[in-house]
Amino acid sequence: MSVTIGIHPSVARIVPPERLESELSDAVPDAAIRVLDGGGDGGRDATVDPASVGDSLDVVASFGYEEWFLDAGLEWIHVVRAGHDEFPVDALRERGIALTNSSGIHGAPVGETVLGYMLQFAHGLHRYRTDQADREWNPRPWSESFTLEGERVCVVGLGTLGRGIARRADALGMSVAGVRRTPAPVDHVEERYSPENLREAVADARFVVLAVPLNPATEGLFGAEELAAMPEDAYLVNVARGPVADQSAVVDALRSESIAGAALDVTDPEPLPEDSPLWGMENVVVTPHASAADEAFPERVADIVGENARRLETGESLANQVV
């Protein structure tokens, strides 16, 4: 299999490039693989001098997008995450450059993380963690805790992430509702709603979990009116993208106590600015876009790239192809 794979330094946002290089060497043993030299401060903001690349690459595995990708003679770009909203799909299509993503590998870690958020809120664990840092023994009234069993969760978006959340919520005895564009049945989801009925879907939910991809249809999907439709004892969880929710409306809802709390793995912008009021709210859990973290992540990405390298050689359609 003759293919040259470049690993963009921006993958450091999720995994050390050298670790991904090692996994790719096992998954695509006949490929030439190299980590591209990056500038900037590494991770998401890393850049590469196009002159150092030339047209020597067939594939780039990357977290983010650079303009030189269009003119580097690439056959294919692989995004090491599910989201690809900043990639110019029309321009890539015009140049015949395939774009694939890592969708499908995040269901378990994101599902478990969401379960963790819900358990924290149900039993006040986030508050006890704060008390521990202050060396305070501060038991809450028994009436402030509840079990997840029997509670209703509305999962907005039933792709890989949403299905992973629904499966785990169902296993704990929660009543699971889901919002998706198509009416097809989904395992572990009792009730299904269309996006047009989003406010009705969240009206009786103790937890609302946003798990949709970011696109023109979902940007600003969850705003003041949707928050107002939630019960006062309900919690918002966002593991989608920051702009899916109107962050200022979320802050207003929290301040006015029209919702009970929020767990935000994604924010708008990222990182969350130091002066954001969200940092100081006791009923808010902020995590740094980390819900998909998993020690097996490099291996799973390499498996997708390896399979697609084989398909590229045989002329088959690529897995997880966006363009």
Automatic annotation (TrEMBL):
Keyword line: NAD, Oxidoreductase
Molecular function via GO: NAD binding; oxidoreductase activity, acting on the CH-OH group of donors, NAD or NADP as acceptor
InterPro entries given in the database record: D-isomer_2_OHA_DH_cat_dom, D-isomer_DH_NAD-bd, Dhydh_Halo, NAD(P)-bd_dom_sf
Pfam families listed in its UniProt record: 2-Hacid_dh, 2-Hacid_dh_C
Gene3D superfamilies attached to this UniProt entry: NAD(P)-binding Rossmann-like Domain
D-isomer specific 2-hydroxyacid dehydrogenase catalytic domain ranges (all copies): 73-322
Domain D-isomer specific 2-hydroxyacid dehydrogenase NAD-binding as annotated: residue spans: 115-290
Top-level lineage group: Archaea
Family designation: Belongs to the D-isomer specific 2-hydroxyacid dehydrogenase family.
Protein name (database record): Phosphoglycerate dehydrogenase-like oxidoreductase
Annotated source species: Halogeometricum pallidum JCM 14848
